Amino acid sequence: MESLIIIGDGGHSKMVQNIVRESGTYRLTEVWDDKYPEPVARDGILYTSLDEKLQSLTQMDSDVAFFVAIGDNEIRKKIARTLALAGKKFAVIVHPTAFVEATVEIGEGSLVMAGSIVQANTVLGKHVIVNSGATVEHDISVGNFVHFAPGSVVTGGCTVADNVLIGAGSVVVPNISIGANVVVGAGSTLTRNLEEHSRKKTE
């Protein structure tokens, strides 16, 4: 079984760690977070400083997979790019209760959480989060570092560019185009295209 290092140890990471244990796809060996100035070993896992480890990436085993378990798109992107520049590879993590249709493509570093649905012919970019109970319907093109928050629904034929946050419980109607760095507010309904850097407020 391939070894896995998880970056981050907040609430989001705790859920990712549980998925890894339940799925049995990877063997979790280390968790890196700056709340551990000194290394701590628990249940066979080493919890240690993120900054210190990032400075010694080139000395590490190239066979280990990484996963950046941080919900914030910008922070996740910054750390993922540092790891990528050092030639590190990324895991794809899917909860056993998620439904991912056979034609779906999932980019490296992406996460599909419990009770979520990703339907036919959808393409998820790199380091995407499909959070608990979210639905990403058919024929959707999703960029990199996108976060579908819990309970959000994006219906068929949509295009979602990089660094987008689809807020919890929001709904995007069919064939909508969402530009880069857009925030769709929690509980909102999106019925028109949004240009990059736009914000759809909760109504």
From TrEMBL:
Pfam families: Hexapep, PglD_N. Coiled coil: none annotated. Keywords: Repeat, Transferase. SUPFAM superfamilies: Trimeric LpxA-like enzymes. InterPro entries: AcTrfase_PglD-like, Hexapep, Hexapep_transf_CS, PglD_N, Trans_hexapeptide_repeat, Trimer_LpxA-like_sf. PROSITE patterns: HEXAPEP_TRANSFERASES. Residues 4-83 form the PglD N-terminal domain. CDD domains: LbH_AT_putative. It comes from the Bacteria. This is PglD N-terminal domain-containing protein. It comes from Listeria newyorkensis.
